[in-house]
Amino acid sequence: MKVTVRLFASLREGRFESREFEFRDGGLVADAIFAAGLRAGEATVIFRNARHADPPDGLAEGDILAFFPPVGGG
Amino acid sequence: MAAARPDASVPRATHPERAAFLEKETRLGFLPWSAEVEAASRFGLGAREIEAEALALGILPARYARNAGLFGIEGQRAFHAARVVVAGCGGLGGYLVEYLARLGVGAIVAVDPDPFDETNLNRQLLATIDDLGRPKVDAAARRVAAVNPAVSLVAVRERLCAQNAERLIGGASAIADGLDSIPARLEIAAAASRLGVPFVHAAVAGWYGQAATQAPGASTLAAIYGDCPSERGAETALGNQAFVPALAAALEVAEICKIILGLPAGLENRLLVFDLLAMETSSFPLA
After folding, report:
1. Chain B: closest CA distance from residue A30 (Å)
2. E strand spans, chain B
3. Closest Cβ opposite residue B204 in set A52, A54, A71
4. CB–CB of B232 and A68 under 8 A?
5. Considering the entire predicted model, what is its pTM?
6. Domains of chain A, start order
7. For the segment B177-193, what is each residue's pLDDT rounded down to a tens digit?
8. Which CATH class is domain B82-285?
């Protein structure tokens, strides 16, 4: 299945803005994090089809994932 | 979301002699600052009490003339009766205090344990060379006294935490997030949710920022940060500038305005993210 991964803010640096990936059935959000070249803890805010998601959530054909880094400055 | 609770310290009834004076001094529908000063001196009251009386009489102090189109006298009364806690007086907090004081929020509780250091000068509105080494909350008090003496700025030189949350934020109209650590945000947001106080969140890093509003009883901040193990985020590598927290604080105050006025807060349980490098904004509902 094809899934679009969109990276935001500093996660784009040295990577990409938006890219399509192919996953096997049963693939998880965590697989997309790995495929996008993100390290553990780098993308803590995740949306799947504009809804909040977590790494153990399953993927479906045509999903659009958005990954954000944690932002904590004040 | 619930509208602000009225502050019992604001007088509702007006004194006939003071009312006559304020009405006589009103010019083109507005009360000039010079008349507020004269009234305060003549009747032995503070600027805050004089403004409360003027607003109760339907007289708008001239400083709020440009507020009238958006908020009217009723809105200005609601701001005057409101109490907003600014949690942290750094990059976000300096702008939060400035915007809230100019808006006419009657009581601002500024909470921050730290003094200014040189690295604050690139972005923190309240930071000046003369204030290096001095408490941030004292600078907030001086700034508010200089801009709008009708606003009561309560300076609290403490770290806001679960232990002092009830004392400092109980009954507040809203909490404005000017914190600089993720665990502190989660702790205060959880306390705010429990105490029934809206928590208006923002955070910044480099070119990037985000904002969201947590209603009483909700766990919006937990939905944003999840089980994020880190104390800090991308700002550790990217640093912070003045214009990014200025924008994030503006988003927060826009939300606080609506909460005080009893209007729907557009970011309730919704995360707005902005990227000033790509000049993009996105927003997402939080489950």
Report:
1. 15
2. 30-31, 60-61, 83-87, 107-111, 152-156, 174-177, 199-205, 208-214, 270-275, 280-285
3. A71
4. no
5. 0.93
6. 2-68 (3.10.20.30)
7. 999 999 999 999 999 99
8. alpha beta
